[in-house]
Amino acid sequence: MEKNKKLLMAIAALLLIVVALGVLTVTQYQKNSEMTQLYAVEKEEMENEYSTFATQYDELQVQINNDSLREKLESEKLKTQRLLEELRQVKTSNAAEILRLKKELKTVRAVLRSYVMQIDSLDRLNKVLAQENTEVKNKYHAATAQINTLSAEKKKLNEKVTLAAQLDATNIVAQPLNKRGKTAKKVKDAKKIAISFTIVKNISASTGNKTLYVRIAKPDNEILSNGNTTFAYENKELTYSIKKYIEYTGEEQSVTVYWDIQEYLPAGTYQVYIFADGNMIGQGSFSMQ
Questions:
Q1: What is the DSSP string of 48-105?
Q2: What global pTM score does this model have?
Q3: pLDDT by residue (tens digit) across 14-52?
């Protein structure tokens, strides 16, 4: 009887152990199942992050012009894509590999953040430099405009000074004279043409020896001349009729020149042009019948 009792107790203890092991196994299985589901979710999230980081590296490469930095970004992108591919091949039950790739993901995130900060810093610097460049260009254009304005004003001033220093011939009178030195009423009686004029007072003009050139144009605009007699005017040679040397002192001065008539002159209106120092300083006209 005592022996049967011990046997029953042993069987009961064994059953308790079996039940306990069963409960433990079920519990462990449930835990493993939950961990597997957790790793599956975590793996999917990690895959999304790796994929996003690879895309961000592409976007960063587009934003920069620095070849060296672009190569570094390309290297990091390829590394991120390799880790992503490794993650996709890992089973959700391989906790060690998932943990390793999780640590790698942390490193990738930190490296990407450093590049983002670096590029952002470069972008801000480029904007500052671009603004400074714009300011420099604006200052240059303003200075150029000011220089052009000053040059134009200087040119106008020089022109005024030049004009002020130019001699001026006024009171131009031309008279045909007969052989007795009297006014000739008809062309056929004219032997000389006397041209008188006044060089006005000009304290701005240079003093000293001056050469005056007088051009007498017939009614057909042909210039009266005694052969190859020319002077320089505005980059060309003009024929003159009479050349006269004077000593100019800056004061008003009367001048008279004569043209000896040796050719046939038609009746009509004649033009007189007076030049000095490369400028036309006076113009007049007269008529002969």
A1: HHHHHHHHHHHHHHHH---HHHHHHHHHHHHHHHHHHHHHHHS-TT-HHHHHHHHHHH
A2: 0.47
A3: 666 655 555 455 444 444 445 556 667 777 887 888 788
Q: How many helices (H) and strands (E) does the chain have?
A: 3, 9
- Contact of 17 with 54, CB cutoff 8 Å: no
Q: What is the secondary structure of 97-147 as a DSSP string?
A: HHHHHHHHHHHHHHHHHHHHHHHHHHHHHHHHHHHHHHHHHHHHHHHHHHH
Cβ burial 65-100 (10 Å sphere, 16+ → b, else e): eeeebeeebeebbebbeebbeebeebebeeeebbee
Q: What is the dihedral of CA 223, 229, 232, 238, to 10 degrees?
A: 20
Tokens 């001048």 sit on residue: 255
Structure tokens at 197: 């004029």
> How many angstroms separate the CA atoms of 272 and 284, rounded?
5
